């Protein structure tokens, strides 16, 4: 039963540390069709470690993770880059003048104004866990001051002049905040009116693992069972207009999966119109139990009630999903899965299962796997998706994507 999970993954899950970074997103970019199965040829290569987060600022792609070196496509020149680098989306060329020395892993990125990027993670330089970085030279923006203490940052969402920050921290910018805060995007000042507080962890500590936003709603998931004292097992919606927990609750993630995964939600993303969102999970195989372990599940954003059920569920049959990206044409899911459409599987292909190694696409309405099947070397899994008008960017820990060499970063273009 445990064969699909490496020892390192199990240890990480037990420790509940930020070793499994979150997929963080604004509402997805609408794409009119499913992307091509053949990746573009010019994306750069990350030569070691893992990619955890991707952001797009204008025509510049910023990539964060836990790595030490990169190279241009088709080049043997090794470029030293410590956990963060940038490249030109059109040409794929790594930016030579952007080489910040981040002292620890990056788990989340968000685009900033004035050619800057927000980076969150587990580092203490150039700031503690959260920094705003200039794309011009890789320096920290001094006017932004919001160090996080007592834990790291695993999720970032920017909406206009506001920056939402999630993680397992206890204080940010000198202000006590448990796992979730809203900051002034320019200065980093903590918004005193936003006091949404997750509580009662399922694991060792309260943690917001992933976030996504659309208009008037912020979705969060992670290791918590309450938000502002209201029951919200692992997933919650925040009404940003009223500044309070939305009248939306699901009990779908209340049951336990495998004991080594006390909390098991991972990535989430809204549809481009904000009407629904999809949550992906780890947890272990649980056939015929009704549990959402190792699954992707769609929920309607504006349904009200205390037991909102998923519109559809797609089970892998025993393999983790870490990231999800929703477009008008598809719900892309990534992890180290072998199959989709596999509700009967127990680390095996049950009746109706379809092979989708490492990456796949699900129909947004039916919840069934689409024919799109480029494949990737499975490894730990996809930790970062980013949808753009020109395609789907993918970040992971392996080197084969769409049957080609694309080390840890790749992009599937629009057809």
From TrEMBL:
Residues 1-27 form the signal peptide. Keywords: Signal. Gene3D superfamilies: 2.80.10.50. This is Delta-60 repeat domain-containing protein. It comes from Microtetraspora malaysiensis.
């Amino acid at each position: 039963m445990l064969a699909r999970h490496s020892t390192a993954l199990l240890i990480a899950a037990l420790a509940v540390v930020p070793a499994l970074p979150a997929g963080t997103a604004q509402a997805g970019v609408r794409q009119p069709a499913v992307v091509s199965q053949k990746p573009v040829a010019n994306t750069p290569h990350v030569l070691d470690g893992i990619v955890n987060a991707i952001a797009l600022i204008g025509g510049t792609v910023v990539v964060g993770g836990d790595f030490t070196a990169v190279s241009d496509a088709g080049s043997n020149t090794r470029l030293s880059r410590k956990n963060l680098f940038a490249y030109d989306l059109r040409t794929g060329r790594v930016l030579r003048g952007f080489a910040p020395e981040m002292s620890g892993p990056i788990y989340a990125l968000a685009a900033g104004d004035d050619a800057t990027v927000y980076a969150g993670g587990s580092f203490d330089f150039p700031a503690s866990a959260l920094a705003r970085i200039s794309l011009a030279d890789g320096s920290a923006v001094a006017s932004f001051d919001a160090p996080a203490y007592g834990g790291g940052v695993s999720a970032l969402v920017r909406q206009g002049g506001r920056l939402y920050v999630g993680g397992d921290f206890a204080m940010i910018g000198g202000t006590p905040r448990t796992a979730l805060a809203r900051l002034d995007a320019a200065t980093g000042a903590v918004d005193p009116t936003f006091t949404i507080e997750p509580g009662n962890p399922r694991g060792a500590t309260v943690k917001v693992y992933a976030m996504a936003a659309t208009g008037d709603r912020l979705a969060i998931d992670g290791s918590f069972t309450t938000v502002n004292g209201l029951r919200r097992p692992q997933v919650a919606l925040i009404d940003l207009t009223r500044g309070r927990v939305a009248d939306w609750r699901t009990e779908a993630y209340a049951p336990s999966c495998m004991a080594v995964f006390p909390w098991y939600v991972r990535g989430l993303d809204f549809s481009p119109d904000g009407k629904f969102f999809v949550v992906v999970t780890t947890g272990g195989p649980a056939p015929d139990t009704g549990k959402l372990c190792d699954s992707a599940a769609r929920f309607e954003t504006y349904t009200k009630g205390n037991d909102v059920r998923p519109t559809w569920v797609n089970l892998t049959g025993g393999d983790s999903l870490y990231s999800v990206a929703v477009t008008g044409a598809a719900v892309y899911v990534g992890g180290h899965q072998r199959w989709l459409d596999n509700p009967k599987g127990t680390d095996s292909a049950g009746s109706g299962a379809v092979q989708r190694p490492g990456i796949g696409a699900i129909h947004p309405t039916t919840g069934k796997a689409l024919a799109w099947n480029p494949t990737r070397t499975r490894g730990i899994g996809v930790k970062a998706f980013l949808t753009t008008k020109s395609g789907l960017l993918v970040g992971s820990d392996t080197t084969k994507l769409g049957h080609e060499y694309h080390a840890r970063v790749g992009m599937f273009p629009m057809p």
